[in-house]
Design a protein that fits this description.
Blueprint: E1 2-6, E2 10-14, H1 16-24, E3 36-44, E4 47-53, E5 62-64, E6 67-69, H2 72-84, E7 88-95, H3 105-117, E8 125-130, E9 139-144, E10 149-154
Parallel strand pairs: 2-4, 7-8
Antiparallel strand pairs: 1-2, 3-4, 3-7, 5-6, 8-9, 9-10
Length: 162
């Protein structure tokens, strides 16, 4: 489990189950394509617990060695289905073929656009990028608003307070 403090009392927690899925999707072979999915959470007072991650999908979207474009239609269906089960969409995850993941300008712009164009009551969306070094060392985790991003975790960095 990874935990971050967000604005004093509020915490963001990523469950071991989600971390295990992310670890299993690393791009470790030379011909592996990027993949990804969505992150879903439960809210309990001052804790946002990411307890479910979707993906990778066998169909829909576009995947290459250095890019991943999900099926927005499939994502909308997932959001509706999981919301009916009490889970809230809080962000996205995808892989990169590098040891320590880092977001590209395209990644940051895409997440900012997603935040601005979505109907929600969140202060930010979460983006997780999974590198080849494994979990947690290869992860990059950030929070994104329509105007800025805040890095929470990059490899061996200490847990962040934001």
């Amino acid at each position: 489990m990874l935990e971050f403090r967000c604005g004093g009392r509020r915490a963001l927690v990523i469950s071991d189950e989600v971390l295990a899925l992310l670890d299993s999707c690393r791009q470790c072979s030379r011909n592996a394509s990027e993949t990804g999915g969505q992150l879903f959470a439960r809210f309990d007072r001052d804790v946002i617990s990411i307890v479910h991650a979707t993906g990778p999908r066998r169909r829909g979207g576009r995947r290459t060695r250095f890019s991943f474009m999900p099926s927005r239609r499939a994502e909308a269906r997932e959001i509706q289905q999981l919301f009916a089960e009490g889970l809230h969409f809080v962000g996205d995850w995808h892989t990169h073929p590098q040891a320590k993941a880092a977001p590209s300008p395209c990644d940051l712009n895409s997440m900012a656009e997603c935040y601005r164009n979505s109907t929600h009551e969140l202060d930010a969306f979460v983006m997780v990028i999974v590198g080849t070094s494994g979990v947690p060392d290869g992860l990059w985790i950030g929070m994104h608003t329509g105007n800025q991003h805040i890095e929470l975790w990059h490899g061996n960095a200490a847990h962040s307070d934001i």
